[in-house]
Amino acid sequence: MNHHSTTAGGGGHGALPGGQWYDAEAGPLVRPYAMTGGRTKPGPSNVRFDLIALVVVDDDPPGAAEESLLGPEHRTLLALCRAETQSVAELAADADLPVGVVRVLLGDLLESGFVKVSRPVPPAQLPDERILKEVIDGLRAL
Q1: Within the chain, which residues score under 50 in pLDDT?
Q2: DSSP secondary structure letter of residue 37
Q3: What angle, 0 to 180 degrees and rounded to 10, lies between the N-to-C axes of helices 88-95 and 99-112?
Q4: Distance (Å, whole) CA 102 – CA 26
Q5: Residue 63 — φ and ψ, nearest 5°?
Q6: According to the model, what pLDDT value does residue 132 have?
Q7: Which single residue of 8, 37, 102, 128 could bond 92 by disulfide (Cβ 3.0 to 4.6 Å)?
Q8: ∠ Cα 9 10 14 (to 5°)
Q9: What is the DSSP string of 112-126?
Q10: Beta bridge partner(s), residue 116
Q11: Residue 1: how many CA atoms within 13 Å on its side-chain side?
């Protein structure tokens, strides 16, 4: 008699005694704290990455030897940044990683010199809406 159970309902779904089966809908199997080494803050400088901050690959990044020492998630973020400038939110979505994890990983890449981050303009420094309307009205009058 076979003492091994099969999955309930077939198709790879269900649980086995002493273990659990995962399918494509289960999501990533690596816990976020494992990707960041248990860290929740990006780097020793405690830099803050706004969701709309733009991330680009540095003009003079470290060599391939240093890049080979990076984790797979770091390399994924670098590949996405090489393809085009992206915001922190876009990187999190495209890499299918939580934003908190992306912020910590970007902190590593920033500290190592792989990427540069341009921070968004603070709302206090943006022109007043009234001034913009006056400029638009002035342009229409031309």
Answers
A1: 1-16
A2: T
A3: 110
A4: 20
A5: -75, 180
A6: 83
A7: 102
A8: 70
A9: HTSEEEEPPPPGGGS
A10: 56
A11: 2
